[in-house]
Amino acid sequence: MNILPTRVSTRIRRGTVAVVVALVAVLGITNFPASAISTPESSLTSSWLAAQVGPTGEVNISGATQSIVTQTMYVAQGLAATGEQRDALDRAMSYLSLNSSIEEWVTNDGSGGTVAPPGADLPERLAALILLVNTTRGNPRAFGTPAVDLVARAQAMYGQVVPGFYGYQEPWSSIQDQSLMVIALQAVGATPPTAAIDWLVDQQCVGGSNPQSSLGGWQAFRASNGNVIQDCDAPDPINYVGADTNSTAFAVQALQLFGRTAPVASAVTFLQSAQATSGSGAGGFPWFTGGDVDANSTALVLQAITAMGQAPSSWSVGGADPLDALEAFQLSSPASDAGAFFASWNPGVPDLLASYQGVWGLTLTAFPFPVLPDRTVVIEPVAVPAFTG
């Protein structure tokens, strides 16, 4: 915290004491506006997210299936996108800085059916924490008490199992994992090797005998037979396989950040083919082409659209654009739920996962989020009339 000095100018004249206070310190913390685009809709979601944060920083929503640490990370990631509700965000970051919270979030506890062994660091979670700490003006090289070097842990994962990849290759999340990791490292000045970016490019569904419906997109992971990467599957919203909008959105953001625009250009065709063109979800995106439009997928694609320097309005179809479709998932009543997003499979009920990712799309901000302004004590000018005595 930077405290600006108070400057007091005093003149003494014969018969007159003129006290001119140039600046009087008003001791209070200003809740600075967001670094990202702030709208009434995003502010409403920020307020709902902030209301979930307890006095000591943890989030424990009744009926939630995620752990307290996971819920707190979700809320903090949502608040970091808007830059609003800084008191709640600071409390959440304080809770997350506990060593027990860091380890619970970052390491695999063995209960999720992952390829990574128990106790191994999970790349997507580690990258998400690095990005969050960086956005909130923390030090990802010395975070928490005792201090943990999150960046060094991330770098130690490179080539851990296969060349060019961070950590273990999960069949359901490898594209997201690698994308967030290279974005996070670049954001904190630890530029990843070119081979890590090449790995993402090579995973795109292009050429060969890849199905037409997958071309230009990314699926969660393409395994290899020797040195040959297997073809992508056609998008299948029933069995959750094939190229999908979520993986593609993460890859687009990463490759755009590194100036690899050729793969990004071909991804546009895939995303446009997945976009809903009619009905109540017009303009929005499903996870897999042909599936139901959902808030999370629409928000992630909005981030990709933003990363490409395009406006949501340029993606308008069926009388609506992706931002219109996303806002349709935001609750306005009752007051206690206002601002939350609901999941497509559970209409009208606040959903934490949909809410914290939904606000990413509302702010039209791609990864990495801008570093939030410092919360300094503000010195405001106050006029004090001169008097004679």
From TrEMBL:
InterPro entries: Terpenoid_cyclase/PrenylTrfase. This is Unannotated protein.
